[in-house]
Ascorbate-specific PTS system EIIC component
Amino acid sequence: MAILSFLQDILSEPAFLMGLIAFIGLIAMRSRWDKVLTGTLGPILGYLMLSAGAGVITANLDPLAKMIETGFNVTGVVPNNEAVTSVAQELLGVETMSILIMGYVFNLLIARFTRFKYIFLTGHHSFFMACLLSAVLGSLNFEGIQMILIGGFILGSWSAISPAIGQKYTLQVTDGDEIAMGHFGSLGYYLSAFIGKYVGKNSKSTEDFEVPEQFGFLRNTTISTALTMVIFYLGAAVAAGPEFVSSLSGETNPYVYALLCGLTFAVGVTIVYNGVRLILADLIPAFEGIATKIIPNSVPAVDCAVFFPFAPTAVILGFISSFIGGVIGMLALGAIGGVVIIPGLVPHFFCGATAGVYGNSTGGVRGATIGAFVNGLLLAFIPAFLLPVLGELGFSNTTFGDVDFGVIGIVLGNLGTWFGQVGIYIILALIAVSLLFPSLGKNKSTAINNVEMED
């Protein structure tokens, strides 16, 4: 009984579960003993780091929400993938990690046996999507192996399908380099490219203009997060008034307290990112190594920042346009009495910049500007529509920020609400048909929409 209890505790602790999976993968690859040792400890320590960072974020979101509510008489929400992930982990930690693993397995199987041969390599976004799926499926009363298999199939499928949807645009961005978009803000980027195609006729490329280098600091996630959150915390503190903030800060000066909260929030985000990277540093190479041996013609789907060098000027223009769209979206939501989604520099920089790069590839300056602006509106409205779906689980102060998370969560959550678990099975059937149908025609061994490869 003591052994069974020990094994149960090991398998019920997400940190040890990740270490066990990494251990199995490294053994299967016949890695040296020292690689097995470090590769097993890395995910365990990474998960503990993630939990610590998530705790910092959660603790600092609460006073911000109270100050915003008091100062502006509104309910304000900061979309933050790391913060909402912390809530999911507290409720469904083992299920989330299991969905993550099954998502990788399904992604490889789909890439091996269908024409969706895209291997999703942006590990932290796979982790965030696994958290979203565990939260939504959990709210629909899925549990255990049923939740893990359904969540893993959806994660693995979208990891292969989302790069394929806009691969023709990605090839335009990269001038034919065979990489794909592996980031769950992809629908916003593809929409930007689609818009650019129609609004950017005869518009010059953004790369015909020079941009000052002093904006380069925004590429540092910690610095940009700190600047953004300090501004919001101080603004919220001024609006709420020193008397109210003092009720939160105790003996600390209210404005010093707001400053520290903003900076500490940025530290929490950095800890979470580093923890996720540490978790996946050995897990991704294990899957990637296996994939290269058994999946011919596969295409790597990589992080959005990989595409920045293809159009550096569009990066800055896209960020500015997206942020303006986010501010307008925030004001519009406030005007109609909705939940105010506060725009942050981090999602608007990385997602807005990428939308700018994609819009520029089809429509030059106008495509980058208008496409990224629309992306900014999406980053305001979609998280607001996602909030009711997640509300039952206690996500009252934050929500997922990137477009794909919102779309997937809204679709699954609403179908589940309207039709119960049957609605989710309908989605699974549609996904299966979508995966298998293209493989019935010609070029069965090539990646769908990877035009250069097919030619």
Notes: Residues 76-207+311-440 form one domain.
